[in-house]
Amino acid sequence: MTYSEFVFKDLGEKIAQGFPVSRHRDDEGVPESVVNVKDLENLYIKHDLEKVFLSSKADIKRYKLRKNDVIIAIRGSLLKTSVVTEASQGSIAGQNVAFFRPKDLNQVNPGYIAVLMRSKWMAQSIYALQRRSSTTLPSIRVSEIREFKIPLPEISIQNKIVELFLFSEEYTKITLETLSARQELIENVLAQLLNKDKC
Question: What is the pTM assigned to this prediction?
Answer without folding.
Answer: 0.81
